[in-house]
Amino acid sequence: MVFFCFCNCFCFISLFLGCLDIFFNFLCVIPIIIGFVLFLSAFNIAFSFVLCYDSGKFGYKGGGEQMAHSAADHRQYIIGIDIGGTNCRIGGIYPDLEFAGQVKKYNSRTLFHTDEPEKVLIGIIDDFIRANPEGAPAGICIGFPGTVNKAKDTVISCPNLLAFTNRNIAGPLGERFHIPVVAEHDVLLLLSYDMKLLGIEDADCIVSFYQGTGLGNGIYIHGRFLDGKNGVSGELGHIPVYGKTDPCPCGNTGCAELYCSGRALERLRDTFFPEIPLESVFSYYDSRPQLHEFIDCMAMAFATEINILDPDYIILAGGVIQMKDFPCDDLCRRIRHYARKPYPAQTLCFKKGSNHPFAGILGAGVYMWNRL
């Protein structure tokens, strides 16, 4: 009996010690389990924060405002180059039309006083890319103050910057940067931006008149810009005016822009009222019959195209039209006078174009993003 009790006690003690051993072994494992759980929790919190940050929930907004694009899109931009007879500007444009970096301005005549203008363009593009290392260009779009071929790679004629005439621009730049490159008439880039700004991209037919140093004209019809057989459509400034024989830089005589462009306005001021500053000439519109004739010439040229195309919208823009006290209402009244009755005269819809100083660069961005 004593032996039996002893055996029972021994078994009980052995069982107790065994349980105690398991308990202490379990205690050793607890820190490992707790550490693993804490690690998983921390990883989950960090991952959730990254997702929220990327989506903008904690205030991050790429390019100045939140964009509905992937992270890669945030870092891509179009290099837009606006080449004018006086200034050349280069900038980067994100898909949401925010600028990538700072716009750089050069003097066109100094910059392109060369026999190899494409090398100069490569140089300023290289400089721009190096100055904006946080992004990468997705394409290059260049606006020229002249005619461009249908393939959008070669400048046909550029009277104000002769170095570009008959030069393939897109080829050398494409080889150097390995991204799409487009050469385009600067007016179509301005029209691209104005259509976006005005919210009329779905219209069937739009005509635009950009009254600056010359007379620029862009046409958008049936969902595309009108190029023509050779890529040189929309040269409204070079339709002949009956009875006029003055030579035009294009090689013809009596072209419309000789009588209703910024150059024509300057000659008019120099001849008839040199005492008035050019920027203020339209403040004297009521008392100057020469200015009435100038506006009438504009109206006749514009109405000619309007009668042919019957557009949904007519965009009026450019340096002359943006001048102080420009008689825009009188211009529209005269266009209606010359337009065919009853239509399109009764339904003409005029829109004022942008006067943004970088509209050419912004338009290059809109044009190229739509093209890619």
List the defining traits of the structure above.
alpha/beta; Nucleotidyltransferase, domain 5; 2 domains; five-stranded mixed beta sheet
General description of the model:
With 372 residues, this protein is α/β, with parallel strands linked by helices. The protein has two domains: 127 residues, Nucleotidyltransferase, domain 5; 152 residues, 2-Layer Sandwich (Nucleotidyltransferase, domain 5), CATH 3.30.420. The protein is built from ten helices and 13 strands. The strands form three sheets. The protein has a five-stranded mixed sheet, sandwiched between helices. It has a five-stranded mixed sheet with strand order 11-10-9-12-13, with helices on both faces. Helix 6 packs across helix 10 and helix 8 packs across helix 9. The protein is globular and about 55 Å long. It starts with a helix and ends with a helix.
How would you concisely characterize the structure shown here?
With 372 residues, the chain is α/β, with parallel strands linked by helices.
The proportion of residues in beta strands is: 15-25%
CATH architecture descriptor of the largest domain: 2-Layer Sandwich
Overall residue-averaged pLDDT value: 85
Fill in the CATH topology of the largest domain: Nucleotidyltransferase, domain 5
Shape: globular
Name the CATH superfamily assignment of the largest domain: ATPase, nucleotide binding domain
Class from helix and strand fractions: alpha/beta
Q: What is the radius of gyration?
A: 34 Å
Oligomer: single chain
Number of domains: 2
Query: Number of DSSP strands?
Result: 13
Q: Widest sheet: strand order?
A: 3-2-1-4-8
The percent of residues in helical segments reads 40-55%
Listing every helix as H and every strand as E from the N terminus to the C terminus, the arrangement reads: HHEEEHHEEEEHEHEEEHHEHEH
Terminal Cα separation, in Å? Answer: 98 Å
Question: Uncertain regions: pLDDT < 50 for 5+ in a row?
Answer: 1-20, 36-40, 42-73
